[in-house]
Amino acid sequence: MSRPDETPAAKPVRKVVSSEAATALFRRALRDVLLFLAAVTVVGVVLGAIFAGTRGVWGALLGAAVALVFSGTTVWSMWRSSHSSPAAMLGIVAGSWLAKMVVLVVALVALQGQDFYSKPVFLAVVLVGVLGSVALDTINYQRARIPYVEPQ
């Protein structure tokens, strides 16, 4: 119960996450992931060529493509669904995850038994690309300035 000499403080009003702040977060995260994967691709191609020749180049290119599908679609699906209801966002993100798994299985089955690419280079580029992208997403999320509530 408030005392008569107190004035009520302005109460914050809950509303949907600030669209500008969320858009800035996802735009920055997607840009950082794309730049990081471009750098991983270049380094992977150079190191793959040095250690495994043409097979290493193909392994690096395929690994970078898989890492891009995994990392890029996650950020993109979250960005596109950030203004939706939580249930819709869950459906979109889970659906994109399922689609990525199907694409990965199809790609691995198609590449099984092929000898035109280096499997160790492929695996190294995928691991570095995906783990680095997760680290970048985490850093971008921690640095984001998205308010929980906004005053009227």
Automatic annotation (TrEMBL):
It comes from the Bacteria. The keyword Transmembrane applies. The chain crosses the membrane at residues 33-51, 57-76, 88-111, 117-136. Keywords: Membrane, Transmembrane, Transmembrane helix. The keyword Membrane applies. This is ATP synthase protein I. It comes from Luteimicrobium xylanilyticum. The lineage of its organism: Bacteria, Bacillati, Actinomycetota, Actinomycetes, Micrococcales.
